[in-house]
Sequence to fold (710 residues):
Amino acid sequence: MIALAPGGTIGILGGGQLGRMLSIAAAQLGFDVAIFTDEPDSPASRVSARTMVANYLDHAALADFARRVDVVTTEFENVPAETAQALIDAGARVAPNPHALAVAQDRFDEKSYFASAGIAAPPFRAVASQGELDAALAEIGAPAILKTRRLGYDGRGQIRIDSADDARGAYAKLGAPGILEGFCAFECEVSIIAARGADGAVAFYDLNENEHKGGILSRTTLPARVSADVEAQAQDAARRVLEAFDYVGVLTIEFFVMADGSLIANEMAPRVHNSGHWTVEGALTSQFEQHIRAIAGWPLGPTTRAASIEMVNLIGADAGAWPALAADPDARVHLYGKRNTRAGRKMGHVTKLKY
Amino acid sequence: MIALAPGGTIGILGGGQLGRMLSIAAAQLGFDVAIFTDEPDSPASRVSARTMVANYLDHAALADFARRVDVVTTEFENVPAETAQALIDAGARVAPNPHALAVAQDRFDEKSYFASAGIAAPPFRAVASQGELDAALAEIGAPAILKTRRLGYDGRGQIRIDSADDARGAYAKLGAPGILEGFCAFECEVSIIAARGADGAVAFYDLNENEHKGGILSRTTLPARVSADVEAQAQDAARRVLEAFDYVGVLTIEFFVMADGSLIANEMAPRVHNSGHWTVEGALTSQFEQHIRAIAGWPLGPTTRAASIEMVNLIGADAGAWPALAADPDARVHLYGKRNTRAGRKMGHVTKLKY
Fold:
């Protein structure tokens, strides 16, 4: 592809904080950004040249959006497949390609893909009834996690099952087609942020070590306390996914690190990721700029990390501590401009760098 | 003052690249930004929540703007004094205060202020006629520079006078009240970016060494090749200006460094400055965030520099080299989203860091 010249317009599906940070990165490279979102006054809209507020299934609006932008990307993986297809039908270039998006949207398809690509994943079974859940539990054994196949994020739509007792009525409680995954007794959790350019070049950021609380990312630190071999396994898996999908843009894979040093893939996100927010200050090219470079057909930038990193999420009421954070000389403060604070809602993050 | 909480609105007068970078910094701290500009589709508007396009002397528009923002600042020093006053009359808090703005707008007032504050400046005389120019030249001697008192920037409105011959007809050519300044045979040029918080705290960035071409900043490097004493002189001058004006925000002073190690103040800019663009990647707190912190009543952030710096401006057609710059792993590329390329127009800049 021919690289998109500065002055071109990047379209982003979604108006959240990832869109906000992508939009800022695009602006720094001289691009205009148009946001497509169903949310009026979204965090991303407020830093973008244009916004179209419409339903993600409004084909007329999507066709109009497609005409006004040079390339379309997404900031959340739950964009309906129909949305991406409508944009393509209207002549838009969509990156990453909708096939990767579709696979990442469905936990069963995702795990199936991992298995087919030789990427170790937890044991899993699709469950579409209580009977299938019981059978899956008998096969996989407890403890296990019952998850919705679709539309889960930040620990939502998940039920932990420690015994056959826990399984009773669990499918009805889930209320949607699910997947039962064997529980991994991991040593720690890591994620890799990887990117592939339109020219096929691949780049990796250093591995993130992640801590979750209540299913939500709480803290990311670098360097991760893992061996070079673990890092190589993560890079190998990411490269396989990027190449299999002819992927263009930033992709994230989350892994469990097991006691024997093996990696188990937990999930992939076809987008920039919370665990990569430290790259704004901590790497020569941020994950946001890297994604924009990739989808604009620019060469990837260097991912060199400049410091030791601690990134802490501000969840819900945490953001109320902004006066103390503003006064902490070690804290680089990021707030997302969300109008309402809710428990479990990502309101901002703080990055601390040690050179 | 009580610190402005995230979600508050920062008003910025002016829609250029400085407003664009201020707006991005404000967004990262969770603020909304409203731009007031007479230019439709300005670079700053395209990254800001709201824009009011109106003449800077439209009092009704200014009063409306004042009601919609929590604090107003400026991204260029040639905002009419009447504009700032109208905003204040309508109840707006304006930072930095309009007195500093007024002094910096007039080269004679500025040089007179330097003299009164004990800050060394070139010899200067106000000239309001050819007769006054001839008399001033006789006193100061050639070479000298004839400059307009007001509305000059990037070398515009300047005539070099090497002899009485050059002076002939020069006042008519200038076409406006002027100031004749003795020419300084400097060793090099430096600038200091300083900030003062609402709490009176003062912070300095490391000194910038600047090269100009045709009166326009071409290149800034750090560390500046000057002694600690030179740096101390610059800090002392900046501190005096900040305190004299009860200044809140970022202020820049440009100096000539003379062979004997003395500093001669060339001009001050009551704002963030091109020579401080490196702080986006190269300092813990960028000059843009620092300015927003100050005017929002937040504590100043640390100014620690993390690397050796080379910042090169992309002037006019220079920005056409973006494909090569995008491919240079050492170049952090910034483009301002200006629609039209003109000779002498600042289109972007590139920062190179060496850790």
User: Anything to note?
Assistant: The two ends of chain A are 38 Å apart (CA to CA). Chain A touches chain B at residues 3, 5-7, 20, 23-24, 27-33, 45-49, 284, 293, 298-299, 301-302, 306-307, 319, 322-323, 326-327, 329, 332-337, 339, 348, 353, 355 (CB under 8 Å).
